Amino acid sequence: MLPDLRVVAVMRQVARAFLRRCRVSKPVAEFVVLAVSELVTNAVIQGEGEVIVQITVAGDVVRVSVTDHNPVPAALKEAGRDGESGRGIRLVDAISDVWESNGEETWCEFRDARAAA
Q1: DSSP collapsed to 3 states, the chain
Q2: Which pLDDT band, with edges at 50, 70 and 90, does 115 fall under?
Q3: What is the pLDDT at residue 4?
Q4: Largest Cα–Cα distance in the chain?
Q5: CA within 20 to 30 Å of 77's CA: 21, 30, 38, 95, which one?
Q6: pLDDT score recorded for residue 34
Q7: What is the distance of C-alpha 70 from the center of its chain?
Q8: Helices 26-46 and 7-21, interaxial angle, to 10°?
Q9: What does the pLDDT read at residue 25?
């Protein structure tokens, strides 16, 4: 997708629908959707070029990967008390089981994701 903040809401809707079809538990799905929102926003604002979002569900793990063309890795930042930005990656760090950024790709994982059958 093109780097445009208007796609963030669309990606939340797409992620929510995909996770529902994959029977990811609602509490985990809400965290995943929040991570999608934060990572896509970060890629649009801080990244370069097209933004690619990939969500995979394998067993009890949901993986969210967001890629752009910025070689600088995403990093934890300290947002000012009244700052309007700088909390996204910190939020992803707090809600996911693991996350990492190698520059162009930032990803996170959520475990124990499947709803009881």
Answers
A1: CCCCCCHHHHHHHHHHHHHHHCCECHHHHHHHHHHHHHHHHHHHHHCCCCCEEEEEEECCEEEEEEECCCCCCCCCCCCCCCCCCCCHHHHHHHHCCEEEECCCEEEEEEECCECCC
A2: low
A3: 77
A4: 44
A5: 30
A6: 97
A7: 16
A8: 150
A9: 94
Tokens of 23: 């029977």
pLDDT at 3: 72
pLDDT band at 112 (very low <50, low <70, confident <90, very high): confident
- Nearest CA-CA partner of 36 in 115, 91, 97, 77: 91
Among 55, 67, 62, 77, smallest CA distance to 101 is for 67
pLDDT band per the 50, 70, 90 thresholds, residue 58:
very high
CA distances from 9 to 40, 61, 79, 106 (A): 10, 23, 23, 19
pTM of the model: 0.88
Burial class (CB in 10 A: 0-12, 13-18, 19+), 78: exposed
Q: What is the chain's length?
A: 117
Sequence-ordered list of residues with C-beta below 8 angstroms from that of 94, at least 6 positions apart, any chain? none
Torsion sign across C-alpha atoms 58, 60, 13, 51: negative
